[in-house]
Design a protein that fits this description.
Structural class: alpha/beta
Protein name: GTP-binding protein 10
Distance between the termini: 65 Å
Largest sheet: 7 strands, mixed
GO molecular function: GTP binding; GTPase activity; magnesium ion binding
Strand content: 15-25%
Radius of gyration: 26 Å
Shape: elongated
GO biological process, one term: ribosome biogenesis
Helix content: 10-25%
Number of helices: 7
Bound molecules: guanosine-5'-triphosphate
Order of helices and strands: EEEHEEEEEEEHEEEHEHEHHEEH
Family: Belongs to the TRAFAC class OBG-HflX-like GTPase superfamily. OBG GTPase family.
Subcellular location: Nucleus, Nucleolus
CATH topology of the largest domain: Rossmann fold
Number of domains: 2
CATH class of the largest domain: Alpha Beta
């Protein structure tokens, strides 16, 4: 039987972990001097946390990135007190920090339903304002998904993630606790000669079927969202989880890891990623590495060994494929340099993107 598998090469850079928005409270309604009537207050703009949301969805649903609450009702003979304008709610994922454009923190959204007021509506016209209403507040705000680390280790059990974290960070990794999460990942700090530091999180618990919440599936996958980049780790010789489960080669492990991320949230596979091929000290490792590299170049030809439903739709474009041995230290310094290079590259791309986003919003809303 011919097994068809269509794999696209996935370009990184689609994952959205921050967003700038323009927000404006509604203006107040007019007062009515003749009979001393008050205009209604304008509505407020709130940012509200909800589990089902992602920043990418916010971006796609509101391409204008503009949120304005309703104006307050004017005072009239029939309705002396004008109606209050409706509030506007911006739904965002849990684990977001809201700041102003000049980096003042407005609030943290750590749990479902948490809310932060970002633009207050104006006052309705009344005696004290000569019955003239005031405008609502307007500003640019920034939403940032809180990160647990710069890099996240993604690999099946026994690939050598903990050993790698220890080899990279030259110390016993810390167990970190974050308010917006239940799983406690291990965080190691990579320290460079110029004292620059990069954090790497070991995210335990990924197994085949994690997207269906097997094992600690979802808890693990949620963390993948919270790192800037991904470090896939595979055993060059492949692995077998248990005697009743099939043996998987390193190439198959890469595909299965990709599939698990894709099934959980497709945008995760667009994060920048590096591939670490571990246990290069084992016999036959060089030969197996060559095989893996060849397979990664032509994934369509080699994915037929996986069941159709475990074949990813897209194939990750790894920035680097780095052979190492966490045990002997082979290749670890090189990997450390690649990690830094990749994060610095992304940081300069992000700076340029923010600049453009900001200019665009300011141009649209300059008064
Ligand atoms: N030969 C060899 N063995 C290694 C290497 N790295 C790790 N191991 C061994 O592989 C096994 C698993 O290593 P871990 O670092 O615990 O792997 P892990 O991916 O953190 O595993 P989980 O904690 O189950 O997710 C251990 O017995 C390690 O000693 C390596 O570079 N070479």
């Amino acid at each position: 039987m011919v097994h068809l598998c269509r794999i696209r090469l996935r370009k990184y850079g689609n994952f959205v972990d921050n967003l700038r928005l323009y927000v404006r409270g509604g203006a107040g309604g007019m007062g009515l001097p003749r009979i001393g009537g008050h205009g209604g207050n304008g509505g407020d703009v709130w940012v509200v946390a909800t589990k089902s949301m992602t920043l990418k969805k916010v971006k796609e649903k509101y391409p204008q990135k503009r949120f304005v609450a309703d104006v307050g009702g004017n005072s009239s003979v029939r309705s002396l007190k004008g109606q209050r304008g409706n509030d506007t709610e911006i739904l965002v994922p849990v684990g977001v920090t809201v700041t102003t454009d000049d980096d003042r923190i407005l609030g943290d959204l750590n749990a479902e339903g948490d809310r932060v007021l970002v633009a207050k509506g104006g006052h309705g016209g009344s005696f004290s304002s000569s019955f003239l209403p005031s405008k609502g507040q307007s500003k640019l705000i920034r939403l940032d998904l809180k990160l647990i680390a710069d890099m996240g280790l993604v690999g099946f059990p026994n690939a050598g993630k903990s050993s790698l974290l220890t080899a990279l960070s030259n110390a016993t990794p810390q167990i970190a606790s974050y308010p917006f999460t239940t799983l406690k990942p291990q965080i190691g700090k990579l320290v460079y000669e110029d004292h620059n530091q990069i954090s790497v999180a070991d995210l335990p618990g990924l197994i085949e079927g994690a997207h269906m919440n097997k094992g600690m599936g979802h808890k693990f996958l949620k963390h993948v969202e919270r790192t800037k980049q991904l470090l896939f780790v595979v055993d060059v010789c492949g692995f077998q989880l248990a005697s009743q489960t099939p043996f998987r080669s390193a190439f198959e492990a890469v595909q299965l890891l990709t599939k698990e991320l894709e099934l959980y949230k497709e945008e995760l596979v667009s994060k920048p990623a590096l591939l670490v091929v571990n246990k290069m000290d084992l016999p036959e490792a060089n030969h197996k590495l060559e095989q893996l590299k060849e397979q990664l170049l032509n994934p369509e030809e080699f994915c037929h060994t996986l069941p159709n439903d475990m074949t990813p739709k897209s194939h990750l474009a790894f920035r680097h494929v780095v052979p190492i041995s966490a045990t002997t230290g082979l290749g670890v310094d090189r990997l450390k340099a690649f990690i830094r290079e990749s994060l610095e590259e992304e940081a300069s791309e992000a700076t340029e993107m923010f600049r453009q986003q900001r200019l665009q919003l300011l141009r649209q809303h300059s008064q």
